[in-house]
Fold:
Amino acid sequence: MKKCLAVLLSLVLLPCLVGGEEAFLLPSKQIYDRYGAPIRGFLSARNTYYLPVSLNEVSPWLIAAAVAAEDKRFFTHSGVDVAAILRAAWQNTTAGEVVSGASTITQQLARAVEPRPKTFWDKTREAFSALKIERQMTKEEILEEYFNLLELGNLTQGVEAASRFYFNTQAADLSLSQSAFLAGLAKSPTYYNPLKHFSRALKRRDWVLKKMLDNGFIDKEMYALAVSEQLELRSAARPFDAPHFTRLLEPLLPPDSQEVSSTLDKDLQLYAEGVVKNYISHLAEQNVTNGAVVVLENATGAVLAYVGSADFYNSQNSGQVDGARALRQPGSALKPFVYGLAFERGSLTPASLILDEDTFFEGGFRPRNYDENYHGWVSARRALACSYNIPAVKAAELSGTFNLLALLRRAGFTSLTKPADFYGLGLALGNGEVRLLDLTNAYAALARGGVYKPVLFATTPIIRAPGRETRLLTPQASYLVTDILADNNARAPAFGLNSPLSLPFLFAAKTGTSKDYKDNFAIGYTARWTVGVWVGNFNATSMQKVSGITGAGPILHDLAVYLQDKYPSGPFPVPEGIVRAQTCLDSGLLAGENCPHTQESAFDRAHLPGICSGRHKAVSTRLKIVSPTDKDVFKIDPSVPLASQAVKWAAECAEDKCTWVLDGKKHPGSSCQNWWPLQAGKHALSVSCLGETASLTFEVLP
Structure:
């Protein structure tokens, strides 16, 4: 009695199927590359490949085959086939075991919606559920739900997923023989599994075709042709490509997404994966275990390739960590934005001279150059191209850390969350952690003339990273940075003429190496595409003297060559306001008639320097005291002989001839750099050079 009440109660509570089960079972997602090649599929909530279709997208042969094999009176019964039940009961009784079933298609649908054990009472509930379904749905709706929820083995759910997997075709295009084959699997997808028991499945197909013939669905000629058809399993591949990229993309997709067209180029992706794996294996002896790559299309911001690690399956080296999104210190890779900001503000031009010498900055910050040398007066062009640290920090000081940080945040570096004072001038040398994906996209902004675009991951549906299109730098400032990064001669003093950054086409590139060789980067771009490469270890251990030029650089080189062949790129567009002029290498000014050492350089017309007189007396020398800084405080150390304690006076001037005045008294000599013995007290210091004067105050405590 209690079981009878349970059955009745379940019928009352049985939800309406229309818009029910199928609506709640979201489709599995299939991600394709930009050219339609499959990349990766994601299972549905039932851990199946589920691709729902409407009934008019199912082959009529399959409908006929299913009805003939499973429920020949489907269109006439009301959910339960009494005649079939009596027939099955007689056959099973006579045989002494279960040899025949009587479940209708509607009952099978009820079981698919709410799976139950095959007990008497559960079969009774299933029958009542089928009766209720028939009252709520049309026959066409029942068939559509049935064909979508039917499990046909090998993780396929629904006839569309099964058609694609077994025959690499759509359910609408199935032949008569293929339709009978799939319809036959419904009885027992495991027993008739075509991948393991193809002959069984083929015999089952023939049985279904005979049922179709007996029920008048096909004639003898059609039967003979279908039986003789040599079926071939042309299983659609279930690739697992670009695992880090697809893992990033999948959560961003709308829940009902089914067919997803990503921006990826599968061939490029596989090539990039191979290049990374190959180079990382050759660097193993130098304690290098991983690398990552991002390739972007500049015009759209679309991801063309995305490699998160050297080997996704290598658990020992944390291969499933996504190096494209991991936070790492970029080293010198942020310097182009330092100089771009200075060019935009007019505080520097590519020809401006910057003194590369041992320098103490605010807070006692004392950067060193990578080569442990100082290079004296160098142009901003050479300083950026050769990646000298001290001139970069001076360039950042001209703009201010606050303004530099604001620029980087606009460029998409969302990981730089601390205030400017936290980073200080070290931000110019990469003391803040960034993602390779963000870094590559920021360089793409330089390539497109200073315009930032959020990264594009998919086109159907359109999936972009958060953010909006915005201008970072003027077209002129961006072009000046690009012109320097593409100048192989300018970086030759540091990297040589035949470094991995040297390519037989216009290619702007920059490397970066973090402290203690824990990370290195190489980023390069043409007018059409941008490539970012990271090399390092996910466990943050140091590499053995592997820099951006020796680690990430060769990977960047090979990818650039491949890309230029597949996606040829031309010259960088020259914006209005860019002029080229001869400059005086001795002053950093426009060359005059008497300047012996000159070189052509690009300039923003709005920030042209003055003209050199030949004696290097210019309209503007931008005289500046670089040491000490205003309001510095020094203290005499009683444990050190007073004669050994001195502070360095240093000034930047286009001509190394300075007049120093301390506390109103002229200091002997004319050098722009002097060592002054400490004397207790408050002091006023000024320097004059080429008609300009700069001054400051400092204090020495006893």
Remarks:
- Residues 145 and 311 are 41 Å apart (CA to CA).
- The domain at 2-24+43-228 is CATH 1.10.3810.10 (Penicillin binding protein transpeptidase fold).
